[in-house]
## 1
Amino acid sequence: DSAAAAVCIATRAATFLMGETSLDSRLARFATLMDAAIVADRSAGQPADAGLADLARTAGNGTSPLLVHFRGADEEVKRTATAALARELNSALLVADVGRASRQGGDFAEWLHDLSREAVFQNAILYLEGLDSIADETARESVLHALPGDGRLTIASGTREWRSGAARIDGVVTVPFETPDWQERRRVWQTALRERGLSPRGQALDALAECFRFSRSQIAADTPRRFLPQRLNRSIPSSRPVMDVTGWICFGPTSEC
């Protein structure tokens, strides 16, 4: 009830003021806190988006939250960009999987309230994952209504185009993280396979870039392990598969895959 909630809020505020700066234990199952020092270390050498940093500083002087939508499939690239932005702003980073939290079976609205308050306490950029996986529109909107109301920056990560009708959001800034183009995919495939001791020929690289339109992290991290190396350097007759992947077969560099 409201009295119990007030006690929880007062208790958390008191412990924070007394120097307990670790993440609220009620959030720990679906959220991770990185302080400014950790953020700076993990984003070292990565350029920050100067325009977004300026926008966040400007929004910090207002009373409406700033919501930025990082749209794209490459979660690793989006997280790296977020860490670099947090470093530029000398902020902590609070990463939360709201999709999983919404299915936890508890009071999702209360969890969101705790999350929003924690972002304020920690002076943290809030990075929300899993928003696309919340099927219920009302639940998605509840995430936005729970955003900190002090002009704080929140980044929502997703893959599909998304717009908000939430009254407290002045505007959603969308930053697209596109799948790399053909030349870039070819280069990333070549690098990833060479790191695994493979030397694919030109036609095989062409086919990989054409058939598998994966993100950089998908190519670099997992996909090359699934390929059968003996197929990569064979000639590529149009009627025979170039390579096998779990669940995928590609039939030549110019065909549909």
Note: The CA atoms of residues 202 and 233 lie 9 Å apart.
## 2
Amino acid sequence: LLVDAPAQQVIMAVALSVLTAAATAAAWIQSRQLHSAAEKAVQAQRVIGALDRFADAVDHFKRAHQELPADDSEITPAIAQAFVNLCEMACISAASAMKALTGQDCRVILQEIYSVDEPGGPRSAVRTIATSDRSGPTGQSTVDWVDANTDFSDLVGGEGIYFCEDLREAIKNGYRNSHWTPIKLTEWGQSGEYPYLSTVVTPVRARQKADDQWGCEGFVSIDSKVPKAFDRATVVPLAAALASVAYTGLSRYTAIKTKKT
């Protein structure tokens, strides 16, 4: 095929333009891939940082307890508060990691289980040790009964994880939450403002000395006000890792407080 010189120049110019556009597109794709890889690396570092903070809380508590006199197994208020403070920082760090992963504001809570003597016999209750929400209550003001909450009762009963993408749908299927009364549900339904809708709750398990079985000592809860905020494949391993790191300190903290009381 013969073409004159001007036509050849046009063809060459078009070809160069196509090659330039292709090179630009390839460079853009590569930059996006690099950016995505960098984001994932930062997210991974935040997750590792959250795990490290929980580990620091456990290590600090163990060392403080080991330094007590041999005949005194009770923890001092200062040691207990130091553990709570470090756990709070760990929860804040974990919430930041979850926000980086999901793009949504998240809350992380560390809770312990303890027994209450009731007229009908011992009853298991749950209270918050630490939370990423510094305005939220902790301690005795956060008591919930295990048997009055679906997530807690399922996990104490042996389930490995409680994962829900939208609690409004779960309520229709019998979900129970001791704070979600009919009056509040009506108010939230009218306003559209719920405390949280997405949630994942992981048990903190420890080996029981009495029968050498693994029992539930508490929970790590992660939630968000946005429905379908969590990718199960991402958040469940993270929650399980946080619970695994926390269990040593929480089980000892609970055991010593039980002796004291």
Note: The two ends are 97 Å apart (CA to CA).
## 3
Amino acid sequence: YAKAREFRLLQACLARDPVLWKELYTEYMEAGDFHRATMCLKRMAATEKKYSIFRQLQLDRADLLIGLEEPQQAITVYSDLWKRSQHKDFEVFAHMTSLFFQTGRFDKLQKLITNAKEMMDTENSAEKKAKEEEKSGKKKKAKKEGDGKEDEKKEADDDDDDEQDEMEKLLNDDEDNSFRKRTRKDSGKKRKFNAKNYLTVVNVECELHIEKGHFEKAISATYEATKVLKIPMEEMHPDVLVRFAVAHIMSGDVEKA
């Protein structure tokens, strides 16, 4: 039976048949041959066009690689997913940070945190700008409507054709403004700042600083988070507050913990 499976494996390699790869994956998992199972997942992912399925196949593959004590290969899989998500898949981020802690790769973890924070700072700035533009747009529209009313009073004696032309122009302007507003709204959705994800990054950052003995940096990172989120310290997420207290205790400042 094992030889027959090896023949089918060769057949799958030549045919690039995802159905056959799936069958082989199931058989290898049942037989406990996890190395071959990871190869099947890799091949299945390579032929998958739908990203959600591709992502799940890669997550399953990384999970198997971790079980096989091959964390570096798992990190490579997660890194690819992180890049494909444009640095927005924080489930993948959590898996990566866990592996970096386990393997002691603090330099890589710091780069990942910096990368995530830079991306989120950009999102936060973009969201603020979008809100300012929307507010400015409303003021301009109100001013334009006011000017339009004044124009109507001044042009009350104009003939019907002129009034019709003016009305069409106003309608077209309203449609243009509506389109621009929808565009800004859609754009804002794509780059919306996510406070939960930001807290995930801050929590990992504080944990890293504490692990490295940089207690003051952990404290500073927490204060910075309160400014970004515009909340008082007592409303900060419990996990971050715990690390904030630990950093104070480890730095010898028990009273502030």
Note: Residues 170-189 have pLDDT under 50 and may be disordered.
